[in-house]
Amino acid sequence: MSRILLLDDTDDLNTVGQLGSILAKLAKNGIRIVDGFIIPIDQKIEFGMSNEILAAFDRLGTERVILRSSINSQTYDTEMLRDIYRDSLLGAISYLQQNNARRGHSAAVIVQRDLNAELAGTIHSINPVTLSPDEEMIEAHLWMNRTVLGGESEPDMLIINKQTGALSLESEEEAEICLGPKQISQLHAMVRKIEDRLKCDVSVDWAYDNGKLYVLRARPITNKTLERFK
């Protein structure tokens, strides 16, 4: 097994953790994820590996990346580091590995190009407030910044009836919603495809960058996922 993997190389949980496994499955099913690579679970930055990591970074053609930890657990929130530049990449990877080890977890580290997204948010394949399986909820923001990724900003919120496609708004006036009909339709189709592939209810973090829809993260809906809606 290579010391550095592409995100679609393997979906083995013991190698790439839950988030890495899900991203690999989505990529293999034609769902667009953000370009990147992964340091497998228990792979330390050994002698000679630093150059491999930096070469992989250079191939992304970006100035900065996002790092996420990926462990084999549905109940543990993945830790994320943003705005990581080339000169701080190795230290940031080591930090995530050591921080997860202190918590008793062996983590893979996912390295992905950082987007300059014009829209970002989360779509839930069930309504997380009412738990209705007949409805989806979209949370959407203009731009993708720290407050969006950290869940600290107030999103536009829309409910989609899966049977009729009808929309209801949970926040703003319809004219002020940042998503257009085509984007809403794309998000609906995407989450249905992911739900079918993973065989469970899912929450999907998404972003539009230069008009293209990307999946940032997908995870099964658990009681922990639903806690913030109570």
Can you tell me about this structure?
This protein is an alpha+beta fold. The protein folds into 2 domains: 5-113, ATP-grasp fold, A domain (Dna Ligase, domain 1), CATH 3.30.1490; 119-229, D-amino Acid Aminotransferase, Chain A, domain 1, CATH 3.30.470.20. It is built from 6 helices and 11 strands. The protein has a 6-stranded antiparallel sheet with strand order 9-8-7-6-10-11. Strand 8 and strand 9 form a beta hairpin. It is globular. The termini are far apart. The model is unreliable at 146-151 (pLDDT under 50).
General shape: globular
* Biggest beta sheet summary: 6 strands, antiparallel
In terms of per-residue confidence, which ranges show pLDDT below 50 for 5 or more consecutive residues?
146-151
Q: Biggest sheet, strands in spatial order?
A: 9-8-7-6-10-11
Number of helical segments with 4 or more residues: 6
What's the number of structural domains? Answer: 2
Radius of gyration (Å): 18 Å
Q: What's the CATH class of the largest domain, please?
A: Alpha Beta
What is the strand tally?
11
CATH fourth-tier homologous superfamily of the largest domain: ATP-grasp fold, B domain
Mean pLDDT: 86
**Considering DSSP H and I runs of 4 or more, what fraction of the residues is helical?**
25-40%
Summed up:
Helices cover 30% and strands 28% of the residues. It has 230 residues and is α+β, with helices and mostly antiparallel strands. It has a six-stranded antiparallel sheet. Strands 1-2-5-3-4 form a five-stranded antiparallel sheet.
